[in-house]
Amino acid sequence: MGRQMVKQQDAGLLDAAWLKQVARDCGADDVGLVELDRSALDDQRHFILQTFAATRSLLSFVIRMNREPIRSPVRSVANEEFHAGYDDVNATAREIVRVLEERGVPACNAVAAFPMEAQLPGRTWTVAHKPVAVAAGLGQIGLHRSVIHPRFGSFVLLGTVLVGAEATAYDQPIDYNPCMSCKLCVAACPVAALKPDGAFDFSACFTHNYREFMGNFNDWVAAVTDAKDHRDYRRRVSDGETRSMWQSLSFRPGYKAAYCIAVCPAGEEVINPYLADKAAYKRKVLRPLTEKEETLYVLPGSDAEAEAPKRFPRKRIQRVRRQLRAESIRGFLFGLKLSFQRGRAGALDATYHWTFTGKESAEATVVIRNGTIEVADGHQGTADVAITADSATWLAILARDKRILPAILLRKVKVRGPIALFKAFGRCFP
User: Fold this and answer.
1) Cα angle: 413, vertex 351, 195; to 5 degrees
2) Using an 8 Å Cβ cutoff, are 129 and 156 in contact?
3) What's the rounded Cα separation, in Å, for the pair 153 and 370?
4) How far is Cα 270 from Cα 263, in angstroms, rounded to an integer?
5) What phi, psi does 14 have (nearest 5°)?
6) CA 146 from centre of chain
7) Which one, 94, 98, 152, 240, has least CB within 10 Å?
8) Which fold has domain 329-427?
């Protein structure tokens, strides 16, 4: 095999079987290959090449996690399993790169999860592992928005190695989705971010689950800086929250919930207990999570604030400030889909034309209809409301450094159309 690999490498190709075996020898539990030019990666290619300009192939692999620690209602146990798994992913990726470099093959490992490029505007990650894994035949995206491996189920972490050579063969996506649509992930989600019809409230998930990760860390800093003294700070942040934040800063950020993964029964090695006795599976796996007494973090006026108390009366609700702060107009437009609240939108049916002037100029169309939102470049269709805003002023309003009414009076923000529809737009984004 070694001689065969060398000949094919001389011809400009790497033997795919050899490359996969390298990955397995370095610790991967499963592996797939994708060519850079695959159409499924069209929206990712720029970021891939930004990370490693010589990329010609992508080696995607999975590392299995232990199931029972992830299912534990004790979050320190579950978080340790995640973090240990991420260490394994990065160690495996580094070892693959080392082996390839020793054989004269240029390669670069992409970080599995954290840290990220925290100061980049908009997207803070470069290589998105999920679409690469799907293209490489390592699973499909489930209702919970994670990759479900056909054998290991949801209990996997993903890694990607960028390879500066083409391979003799590439993998294709699997022709079925292991997701069973059992909706246990919907039942388990403590802030109702997952919807029965497949919709996903990113804002709810981000606000609660990632409470002590990057963006939400800003809220804690604001609580510290805004407090008049230690008594005022303790009114804003409980002692337990402070200790939890210290743990995340001192060791590693702690997920508040990964219940959607914990309860997922999909995968050949996972499914049998669920099929044998669904009621018993729910009692053992689902109920300890849904009945756990814990604090749920929600945005004021959000769908999560309205739904969570009804579904989980044993859990404490704490309102926190909005964390998805746009630093650019591009970021504002990108974030509209992420922060949209379809429950708050109700029966709203309107088309909005946005025109931004000044430092950052842009035109966009936002359509809210039937509890959905679409955002497109340019002005399309007939607007019910047209908004023209100075870009710097609008970003200051979003950051709460300026108020919208004075901006309208000073003509920094101009609204043409029913003001009620303009206000309705704002209610969709808590």
Assistant:
1) 110
2) no
3) 33
4) 10
5) -100, 140
6) 9
7) 240
8) Nonspecific Lipid-transfer Protein; Chain A (3.30.1050)
DSSP string computed for 251-281: T-PPPS--HHHHT---STTTSHHHHH-HHHH
Q: Locate 35 and state its tokens.
A: 């060519």
Q: Among 1.10.443, 3.40.109, 3.30.1490, 3.30.420, what is the CATH number of 2-167?
A: 3.40.109
The answer to whether 342 and 368 are in contact (CB under 8 A) is no
130 CB-contact burial (10 Å; exposed 0-12 / middle 13-18 / buried 19+): middle
Distance CA 427, CA 332 (A): 16
350-357 and 385-390 as β-strands: parallel, antiparallel, unpaired?
Answer: parallel
Where exactly are the structural domains of the chain? Answer: 2-167, 184-319, 329-427
Each residue's pLDDT tens digit, 260-307: 999 999 999 999 999 999 999 999 999 999 999 999 999 999 999 999
Which residue in 298, 117, 77, 320 sits closest to 217, CA to CA? 320
Type and span of the H or E element at 350: strand 350-357
Per the CB < 8 A criterion, the answer to whether 267 and 62 are in contact is no
pTM for this structure? 0.89
